[in-house]
Design brief:
The complex is a heterodimer of chains A (697) and B (579).
Chain A lengths: L17 E3 L23 E8 L8 E3 L3 H7 L11 E2 L5 E3 L4 H8 L3 E8 L7 H10 L11 H9 L17 E4 L15 E4 L20 H29 L10 H14 L6 E7 L17 H23 L5 E7 L3 E5 L5 E3 L3 E7 L6 E2 L19 E2 H13 L3 H8 L36 E3 L13 E7 L8 E7 L6 E5 L5 E4 L6 E7 L2 E8 L7 E8 L6 E7 L4 E7 L4 E5 L2 E5 L3 E5 L3 E8 L8 E7 L4 E3 L6 E5 L6 E8 L4 E8 L5 E5 L6 E8 L4 E8 L1
Chain B lengths: L12 H7 L19 H11 L5 H6 L5 H8 L19 H6 L24 H16 L6 H11 L10 H15 L4 H9 L2 H6 L13 H11 L10 H10 L3 E4 L7 E4 L9 E2 L8 E2 L8 H11 L4 H14 L6 H17 L4 H9 L17 H14 L8 H4 L12 H15 L29 H15 L8 E5 L2 E5 L3 H4 L9 H12 L6 H12 L4 H11 L3 H17 L7
Antiparallel strand pairs in B: 1-2, 3-4, 5-6
Helix pairs in contact in B: 6-8, 6-19, 7-8, 8-9, 9-13, 11-12, 14-15, 14-16, 17-19, 20-25, 23-25
């Protein structure tokens, strides 16, 4: 199965200073069908799911509530001197979150307190589904907020993906089975891999076109997703292997996930959303160790989280990639204010979220939760923010999307929280910060000038440029076929080395073939009269064909010659005067007994001829061996005579004679006159060419 | 440098419109199909009415005419085997009684459905229950019975309670579906509303008149009877009123026998329940004393007295058995008629499904291979053909002797081997008795993509991995993984033995044809056919294969390797994923 070979386009941006929103290409050169590398510096969101329900009160500790907090949860309360106080605030962090405190000192940490939702559900599965789908808790929604976001921004997904603009998965989840968060209304928008080894589970690759029946549509879809799995897997592997880790991660599962994400980002994968998860937060018992509250399950988990975020930042700070990332932690709910007798807590409602990034508006948002005096099981942390506010903020301030987009995806208009520093916010995601942007609400994907306003452009894939045939050196029969999809314009087409200016218009259905081209490299420029300054260039080449080469191997058992050919897609194979055509490099030519002449040519004369002469001998049978008097030699086939020669071991020729072959097809060779020893007998004729050894007694 | 897969599809309006004809059925007639069945039509029929097909099903209807085949398909199962205590190698009777508190529990190998339940749930018991369901399905007669049960499970989904007392309730839920598969859906809804499993799943069992729990009331209307389509018009107030009916119902869950519904009348809201104009303003009279299950009877009568439930049910039946996308023509011509039928025959599932299955419309070729196989149908076909029915024939002798007794003993083997079935189902995206939400499984209801949702980059890889294992390729210990507490084993298929059931395995074309016939419904092009042929002949001649096979047909060590090449290719074909 051959992959289709494509001509890859590079776009030359206009002479005006411009910023291509979100998808800049680096200019590099083509080499036949080798693709130039695309590299984007887009913003990345890393979602960290803390599964089980994280105890917010022991994570972000309200320093002004300590006395009531102690009363409520004596057996798991962390004394103030063990906690990590955050400067200029009323909170401290769990002792294991040392790096998070450092991030706070560096103004890279934001804490949003008391986040929950309207109709809290204390079932793990339901609640996590609500967080994933963006539901208010009163009903089940079948799709995820990020699934909807990605489908809105990529309406042709998955059918027209991967493509030049988006060659990599839209989202990557490290885990098993795609989560509701990335389930769209149409399909799943994420690529899922349990671990790095699974990037390359190759599926039998096919590239067939199917009929446009319901059956055909389903087959196409299956083939599409299988190919996605292969291709995206290869992309991930490629990015993964390109990068190295300077500052090592710990060896637990979660840190390995973080390490994988780190490698993929460093390796240039331009996926924008990653999700990893850390489980075990459902601490109904032994959230802390009885003898030392700074130890225990919760401490281990927070340490794991802390250290992997630390290693991530050590690596990405060094490589300069930390500019691009934003981390967000979330959990399906918090835990109760009071603890139980087993050093644990039950399911609660609101809890804090961490947002981490270089461009974060670092502050602690929200009030410290009020811990009632003499709290009971009836008391819960009061919700101050809705997680959908956080989602809306992430969409509008970081991922890229207008307020309307956020409202559409979350079904309601939620008040935002300032997550990203105002100076970094680019609400319409056109590459120009809001503070410099003259045109807010630029449509997604537009090319803009330095003021953030739309520049005329057409997508590179509006055009199709294909070399139709290769030419032989000296002959000018190469062709280039060009066409354009957007038929509302008339285009001028110029080809380097050709004087004529062609056009693509309604007159020729926006499609044309330029013929009689020599072997060589060509630049094709598309311009539009009505759009001054616009130009789209492509580079391609017309090559000479590879030489025709061949090898033959005779299979005596099946009486065929196995030919291995190369240099063309179509071969004309003449076997003993009979002509056959083949479109594969392997061909099995049937042989007749005797001499066979095989000649191979291609549609291009200049590739020459490949010729073989093969002799298929009939197999002689002879008996007895050892022989005393007469040697019987049976000659299959149709020859009427056979030439026999006898040689000694040493090579002396003792006998030469021609025997006619009668109906029994067996000739008798007198051997009695020879002395005992080893002899070599050869038989040759029209269809025979064999020799064998015989012993004379 | 990296390679790209770029699809340059020109969107041409004219071509799209013309091709739409290939996407619509030629006939909307529900008249009975009267021709004799071609092999394609038979394939289509059996694959849609069974949970996975295999040679034995085709053999069951060999030589039958259409009427006789339909009769057979609509004959209820000849058997019903109750689940037994088959996990005793993992947890023995003493442990069940002492550690898990199920005293007395049944002896090993005995039916447990009426025994005392353990007061926590040993996972093994749930696993055994789910394997029992799979076994029933894999062992099914050539009858639509279990397919209707499975259909009902997707329509009224539930799981095994995570707390104690879960498995018995789940069993009786399945028994309810099984006993009513050919009966009235209305009657089934009445029974289901008072079924302990659903009472627990949707919180009726603790609903009190002071704050009635709306869970069951909502799902009864939204998911099981009226739906959320354009014809649905019930109000939130209806849900509240219905929730008031479902108060005061409690359950006994200890002791022997099935769980019983108990009427705690002091917790029941005895007032009248007034419904909205969507239900013709009917009022359900509140009952005093212990008789308030009569309110539920009234409720069901009222719900099924309006038209929309019959349409809702007709649509779900159509989507499950024919095609998930319902166009306006189908709604007008088919759904309307089927819903009239349902209203006329007291919502009889057997009769209505039979009419649909025997119709000309059902056999329209536009529906052949038009649905992506759900994981259950995908794996069932392969398991039925290779493993389950003929299991002991298709495991190589040298492997079998060394297996531990627990997977050789007839009484316990299915607990282990069927768990591998459960495992691969899970990896390809499905767990029976464990829906992702109360709505069930997304591919069965999420318009407009429906069955495409079974396929994502992960599940498609898992199907590939399964093909590797069953085809014998992949890791060095390829084969189905069977796990047990203190280890695992892999069972490989003995294809040399399997081939003896073929008509002419020494003839390569016949061999390929029969392989395709057994596993693939749709046509396969010549390129693929040649690829399959080459995978086993390596480019040698047909005669070469004949000679080789005849010499080696009993030689597992030589032949099986070559056959694995072939079967591995077959199981990777895209065509195996549609029906």
């Amino acid at each position: 199965m051959e992959r289709r070979k494509f001509l890859h386009n590079i776009s030359h941006l206009t002479a005006l200073g411009s910023v291509s929103s979100a998808f800049p290409f680096s200019n590099s050169f083509l080499n036949n069908s080798i693709l130039s590398e695309t590299f984007t510096r887009d913003k990345i969101l890393i979602l960290i799911e803390l599964t089980g329900g994280n105890d917010g009160l022991n994570t972000v500790i309200p320093l002004d509530q300590l006395s009531n907090l102690y009363d409520a949860r004596k057996n798991i309360f962390i004394p103030e001197n063990k906690t990590l106080e955050l400067k200029n605030s009323q909170v401290a962090l769990h002792p294991e979150l040392g790096f998070f405190r450092e991030l706070h000192n560096q103004d890279r940490l934001k804490i949003i307190q008391n986040v929950g939702y309207e109709y809290p559900n204390l079932s793990h599965f339901f609640s996590m589904d609500y967080w994933h789908s963006g539901s208010d808790g009163s009903k089940y929604i079948d799709s995820g907020w990020l699934g909807r976001y990605l489908e809105l921004n990529h309406p042709k997904y998955p059918d027209a993906y991967p493509n030049l603009n988006f060659p990599h998965p839209l989202a990557v989840e490290i885990g098993y089975n795609t989560s509701l968060m990335f389930t769209g209304n149409k399909s799943f928008t994420s690529y899922v891999a349990p671990d790095i080894n699974n990037f390359l589970e190759k599926i039998n690759e096919t590239d067939l076109s199917y009929q446009d029946t319901i059956e055909g549509q389903k087959k196409s879809f299956l083939q599409l997703i299988s190919n996605h799995s292969n291709i995206y897997g290869e992309e991930l592997k490629s990015s993964y292997e390109k990068s190295d880790i300077e500052f090592e991660f710990a060896n637990d599962e979660f840190s390995k996930q973080m390490r994988t994400v780190c490698k993929l980002i460093k390796g240039g994968l331009n996926t924008r959303i990653y999700k990893i998860s850390l489980g075990g937060f459902d601490t109904h018992t032994f959230q802390v160790e009885g003898s030392d509250v700074t130890k225990g399950m919760h401490a281990i988990l927070l340490r794991t989280l802390n250290n992997s975020v630390k290693a991530l930042y050590e690596n990405l700070d060094k490589s300069g990639d930390s500019e691009r990332i934003l981390l967000m932690t979330y959990s399906e709910f918090g835990r109760t204010i009071i603890s139980n007798s087993a050093y644990g807590t039950e399911h609660g409602t609101a809890a804090p979220m961490f947002i981490i990034g270089n461009k974060v508006n670092s502050s602690i948002v929200g009030q410290n939760p009020i811990i009632p005096k003499n709290s009971t099981w009836e008391n819960d942390i009061e919700r101050e923010f809705d997680f959908k506010q956080v989602y809306a903020s992430v969409i509008n301030q970081w991922l890229g999307g207008s307020k309307k987009t956020a409202e559409h995806i979350l079904f309601k208009d939620y008040d935002q929280i300032q997550i990203i520093g105002k100076e970094y916010v680019d609400s319409d995601n056109d590459g120009v910060m809001d503070i410099n942007d003259n045109c807010s609400d630029t449509p997604e994907g537009s090319v803009v000038d330095l003021n953030g306003c739309v520049l005329f452009t057409l997508a590179a894939n509006n055009y199709s440029v294909k070399t139709v045939s290769a030419s032989c050196i000296g002959s000018n029969n190469g062709k280039i076929e060009v066409s354009a999809q957007d038929t509302s314009y008339t285009y001028q087409v110029n080809i380097s080395g050709v004087d004529t200016t062609y056009s693509l218009s309604a007159d020729n259905n926006h499609s044309l073939v330029i013929e009689d081209l020599e072997v060589g490299a060509y630049t094709i420029n598309f311009t539009i009269d009505s759009q001054q300054g616009y130009i789209q260039s492509f580079e391609t080449s017309i090559t000479e064909p590879a030489p025709l080469q061949g090898k033959a191997q005779v299979d005596y058992f099946s009486k065929t010659a196995k030919l291995k050919l190369s240099g063309s897609e179509v071969y004309y194979i003449e076997v003993n005067g009979q002509m056959m055509a083949a479109n594969s490099n392997d061909f099995s030519a049937p042989l007749k007994p005797g001499k066979n002449i095989i000649k191979v040519t291609t549609p291009l004369d200049c590739q020459g001829v490949y010729e073989e002469v093969l002799f298929m001998s009939e197999k002689l049978r002879y008996f007895p061996n050892p022989v005393q008097n007469e040697l019987n030699i049976t000659v299959p086939g149709t020859d009427s005579e056979i030439n026999i020669e006898i040689f000694t071991d040493g090579g002396a020729n003792l006998y030469r004679g021609t025997h006619s072959i009668n109906g029994s097809r067996t000739i008798q060779l007198p051997m009695s006159r020879y002395k005992s020893g080893l002899y070599i007998v050869t038989g040759s004729g029209k269809t025979v060419n064999e020799s064998f050894k015989i012993i004379k007694n | 440098m990296f390679k790209l897969f770029y699809q340059n599809k020109k969107i041409n309006q004219k071509i799209t419109l013309k091709n739409n004809l290939n996407l619509k059925p030629q006939t909307y007639s529900l008249e009975e199909f009267t021709e004799s069945l071609s092999s394609k039509q038979l394939n289509h029929l059996l694959n849609r009415v069974l949970v996975g097909t295999s040679k034995r099903h085709f053999d069951d209807v060999l030589g039958f005419d259409f009427k006789k085949i339909i009769e057979k398909i609509f004959t209820p199962e000849s058997k019903f085997v109750e689940p037994k205590y088959d996990w005793y190698y993992e947890i023995n009777k003493d442990e069940m009684e002492n550690q898990w508190g199920a005293k007395p529990f049944v002896d090993p190998g005995q039916v447990w459905i009426n025994s005392v339940e353990p007061n926590h749930q040993p996972y093994e018991k749930t696993r055994s229950l789910n394997c029992w369901i799979y076994k029933c399905i894999l062992n099914q007669d050539t009858s639509i019975h279990w397919k209707i049960v499975y259909f009902l499970h997707t329509l009224v989904p539930t799981n095994v309670e995570q707390n104690s007392y879960g498995q018995k309730a789940s069993y009786y839920y399945w028994k309810l579906l099984f006993d009513n598969a050919f009966g009235s859906y209305k009657d089934l809804m009445l029974k289901m509303s008072l079924e302990p499993q659903m009472m627990v799943y949707l919180d009726v069992w603790r609903s009190h008149k002071d704050s009635p729990n709306e869970n069951y009331a909502r799902e009864l209307l939204e998911l099981y009877t009226v739906g959320k389509g354009p014809g649905s018009g019930f109000l939130e107030s209806d849900i509240y009123q219905i929730a008031r009916i479902f108060t005061g119902f409690r359950l006994t869950r200890m002791g022997e026998g099935p769980h019983q519904v108990v009427y705690e009348d002091f917790a029941h809201d005895t007032g009248d329940k007034k419904l909205s104009s969507f239900f013709n303003n009917h009022t359900i009279k509140g009952r005093l004393g212990q008789n308030y299950s009569e309110e539920v009877e009234d409720l069901i009568d009222i719900i099924f007295s309006i038209d929309e439930p019959s349409k809702f049910l007709a649509r779900r039946i159509y989507q499950f058995f024919v095609n998930p996308v319902i166009s306006s023509e189908i709604e007008l011509n088919i759904i309307n008629k089927l819903s009239e039928d349902l209203r006329a025959n007291n919502y009889n599932l057997g009769k209505t499904i039979k009419r649909l299955i025997s119709s000309k419309h059902f056999f329209d070729s536009v529906f052949f291979n038009s649905i992506i196989k759900p994981p259950l149908e995908y794996l069932s076909s392969i398991y039925k053909e290779l493993l389950f029915d003929n299991y002991f024939e298709y495991v190589s002798d040298h492997d079998w002797e060394s297996q531990p007794n627990k997977i050789k003993d007839l009484e316990t083997r299915d607990f282990y081997i069927l768990d591998s079935f459960r495992h691969y189902l899970y990896m390809t995206g499905f767990e029976i008795n464990n829906p992702p939400s109360v709505s069930g499984w997304i591919p069965y209801y999420q318009a407009p993509e429906f069955d495409k949702f079974w396929i994502n980059t992960y599940t498609v890889t898992q199907r590939q991995q399964f093909a590797n294992r069953i085809g014998g390729k992949g890791e060095s210990n390829a084969g189905i993984h069977v796990y047990y507490f203190d280890g695992s084993t892999s069972l490989r298929i003995d294809y040399t033995k399997y081939l003896k059931s073929f008509s002419d395995p020494s003839n390569i074309d016949s061999l390929i044809d029969e392989c395709l016939k057994r596993f693939i419904l749709s046509d396969v092009d010549d390129i693929t056919r040649n690829r399959l042929k080459n995978s086993i002949t390596n480019g040698n001649s047909d005669e070469h294969w004949t000679e080789y096979y005849n010499q080696n047909k009993n030689n597992y060590w030589s032949l099986n390797q070559r056959l694995e090449h072939l079967f591995h290719q077959i199981f990777q074909l895209i065509e195996i994923n549609i029906f």
